[in-house]
Amino acid sequence: MFLGLDLGTSGLRALLVDMAGLPVASEAHAYGVSHPHPGWSEQDPAHWVAAVDTVMTKLAAEHADAMAQVRGIGVSGHMHGATLLDDKGEVLRPCILWNDTRSHEEAALLDGIDGVRQLSGNIVFPGFTAPKLMWVKRNEPEVFAKIAKVLLPAAYMNFFLTAGFFADMSDSAGTSWLDVGQRAWSDTLLAAGEMQASQMPTLVEGSEVGGTLRGELAKRWGMSDSVVVVGGAGDNAAAACGVGAMREGAGFVSLGTSGVLLTGRDGYAPLPESAVHTFCHAVPGQWYQMGVILAATDSLNWLSRVTGAAPADLSRELGDTITGPERLRFLPYLSGERTPHNDSRIRGAFLNIDVAHDRKAMTQAVMEGVAFALRDSAEALKASGAQLDNLLAIGGGAASRFWVQTIATLLDLPLELPQAGDFGAALGAARLAMVGSGAGSVEDIMARPAVAETIEPVAALRGAYDDAYAAYRESYPAVRGL
Question: Binding residue per annotation — 195?
Fold first, then answer.
C-alpha cells in the first residue's frame, strides 16, 4: 500500500492506493483560512498537523490491515507558503499563503534585480515565498531574527512526519530562491532575497526518499517503522503526476479555486515576461509550465454568495451547450491576477450591465470571464514554445459541460473528461511514493486516466468567441486605469 496526502488550502485529504495504484480508502478533514487584514491570507500549521492526525487515525481505525501494509508516503501541498521555524523547530508565526498579496512592493523590488528572472525562470510574484520573507524582515524584524528554517507547507508536513528538513524541486521552484534550470538553491537568489542557504531545506526530487516516518507516529497510526516519505510535490505538479501530464504537450485545464492551464515540458524554456510559471516537475529531468489565474471556481462561489444560489444551481440554469457569448462581461480579478498581467492590485468588474440582465446572464458572464482568462494563459504558453496537444479538464468546475465547452471553443482544442475516480494531487503524491518505494518507474506509474468523454470546440461559434475575447483583452487596461 501507498499513501498520498494532499495538503490543500481548505483541507487535507489522505488517499490509500494499492500496488496497482488503485484507490483503497480516502479520508478528508477541513480547516479554515484567516484574513486578518485586506490582502492577507494565513493559516496556522497546527491545523495541518491536527488534520493529518485526524485522517490517519480514522484510516487506522477503519482500514487497519491496509495501513499496516503502507510502504511509502508522498505529500502534495499548496505552493509558495512561508512557514517559519526557530532553531527548536517551533513555528514562529502563521504561514503566509500563496494568495496573500501584502508583499507586492517587495516582489517588485526583487523582480527588478538583475539576474533574478533569469535564474529563477519566473517573474517574482507577490504570492511567491521570497518577497514574503522580505516583508517579514521589514515589518516583523523580531520574528525574522529567529528564523532558522523556512519551509513550504508540504515540506513542513514532511518535517512533521519525519523530523527532517527536505523539500522537492517542483515546490521549491516557486520560491524565487531556486535556480530552476539547474535544480539547486541559488546563492545569488538567496542573497537578493536577504536569506541564507542554511535556512533552506535539503532538496530532493519528488520521487526520491527524503526520510522515514517517525516511530511514534508509525505506532500511533498502526504502520510499519520502515515507511519512507518521499519529496512529494507542489499541488499542481502532483496533479500532473495524478493525470499523467509528464511530457511535452500533455497537460490539463484545472477549474479549481484558482484556474490552471498546465503542460509538461521535456526541457527548460522559461519566458518570464509572459507571466507563465516555469517550474521543475516532480520527477528528474522534467519541467512544466503553467498559466495561473487566481479566481476560477472562486468567481462562481463569489456569485453564489451574492445571489444566495448554490453554484450547482447557477450552473444548471445554463444547461450543457453554448449558444454564443454573453454581451455582459465579467473580469475575474477578484484577488488580483497572475498570468499574463502580474497585477496584485487589479480587481474584478461586470461591464455592459443592462436592465434586462438576470442571474443566468451573470453566471454565463462569470464562466466566460474565467474562460477568457484561461485563453490569456494559453496565448502566453504558446509564446514560450509550449505545445497544447492533449488536455484533460479537471477540478470541480469541470462538472459543468457548459463551462468546459466554452473553454474548448476559446482554446480551439478538444478537452477530455476523465472517467470518474480518484486522481489529481492526492493520487499524484501516492504515485510519487510508489516510485520512491520501488514499485515501478515513472513511465509505468504516471499513466493518464481513461477518458469518459471528449468535449469538442463549437466551430460555428469560434469567430464570435474570438471577437468577445478581443473585447475582453481591451478591458484590462481600461479598468486598470480607473
Answer: no
Phi, then psi, of 18 in degrees rounded to 5: -95, -170
Respond yes or no: is residue 53 known to be catalytic.
Answer: no
Q: In whole angstroms, what is the distance from residue 461 CA to residue 467 CA?
A: 10
| 171, 77 Cβ separation under 8 angstroms | yes
- Amino acid in position 173: A
Q: Backbone phi, then psi, for 187, in 5-degree steps? A: -60, -35
The pLDDT of residue 423 is above 80: no
pLDDT value, residue 421: 67
Q: Kindly write down the DSSP assignment for every residue of 392-445, as one continuous string.
A: EEESGGGG-HHHHHHHHHHHTS-EEEEPSS--SHHHHHHHHHHHHTTS--HHHH
Instruction: Name, in order, each residue with C-beta under 8 angstroms of 392's C-beta and a sequence gap of 6 or more.
Output: 243, 245, 251, 252, 253, 415, 416, 417, 418, 448, 449, 451
Q: Please state, rounded to an integer, the average pLDDT across all residues of the chain.
A: 95
Q: Which of 213, 208, 232 is nearest to 76 (CA)?
A: 232
Give CA–CA dist 3/16, Å, rounded.
5
Assign 422 a pLDDT band (cuts: 50, 70, 90). Answer: low
Q: Which three cell numbers stand for residue 305?
A: 454568495
Would the CATH topology of 2-231 be identical to that of 244-418+450-482?
yes
Task: Name the β-bridge partners of 418.
Answer: 451
Which of these is catalytic: 168, 171, 235, 376? 235
Q: Which among 228, 169, 176, 177 has a CA at the least distance from the CA of 198?
A: 177
pTM for the full predicted model: 0.90
Q: Is 51 helix (H, G, I), strand (E, B) or coil?
A: helix
Q: Determine if residue 80 is labeled as part of a ligand binding site.
A: yes
Tens digit of each residue's pLDDT (9 = 90 or more) over 231-279: 999 999 999 999 999 988 899 999 988 899 999 999 999 989 888 999 9
Q: Give the start-to-end residue ranges of the domains of the chain.
A: 2-231, 244-418+450-482
Total number of residues shown for the chain = 482
Q: What is the pLDDT of residues 338-395, one digit of tens each?
A: 899 988 889 999 999 999 999 999 999 999 999 999 999 999 999 988 889 889 999 8
HSE, side-chain direction, 13 A CA sphere, residue 82: 31
The vertex-44 CA angle with 193 and 342, nearest 5°, equals 45
What's the CATH code, domain 2-231?
3.30.420.40
Return the CATH number of the domain spanning residue range 244-418+450-482: 3.30.420.40
At residue 179, the 3 state secondary structure works out as strand
CA-closest candidate to residue 72, choices 423, 439, 424, 426: 439
CA 316 to chain centre: 27
Contact between residue 232 and residue 181 where contact means Cβ atoms under 8 Å apart: no
Closest CA to 350 of 307, 409, 411: 307
Give me the amino acid identity at 85.
L
